[in-house]
Amino acid sequence: MKKGRKKQRSNRREQACVVRDFMAALALCHNVTPSFPDPDDPTIIEFQASSPDEIALVKFADSMGMNLTSRDANNVEIVNTAGVTEKYEILANFPFSSDTKRMGIVLRHKATKRLIFYLKGAEVVMKDKCRPNQRATVDESCENLASEGLRTLVICQK
Fold this sequence. Notes:
The protein is an alpha+beta fold and 158 residues long. 37% of the residues lie in helices and 28% in strands.
């Protein structure tokens, strides 16, 4: 009985980490700039970007508690769901293009010095970035969503 409980807790912890990493990817992998139009009210935030899709993803992350608070060419800052500010240095930015059908960003977490690479894009190009044993799962999931008329976006990190 104890063994089953430990595995269940481990799975929940793993799922929580996956969800946290997904929200972090949405909050960090983009070219969105937050602005605060009212200097007297820092709770009013507007997002600016060339793509409304990018803004929608950042707003979703924001609604889930992963808040983008600043971004420029060299740095990005978020406040995570625990209310802790996380600062990142942007080491490389790979903007979306219609040729590559993906965009990516390489970041260094300033406190831990941990490097992270986020990449997101169309499943057609992204499935080749997955491990061979995961490609069929990505294909099947995207096909199921597309058959319901939904758009798909694949996000990964390294």
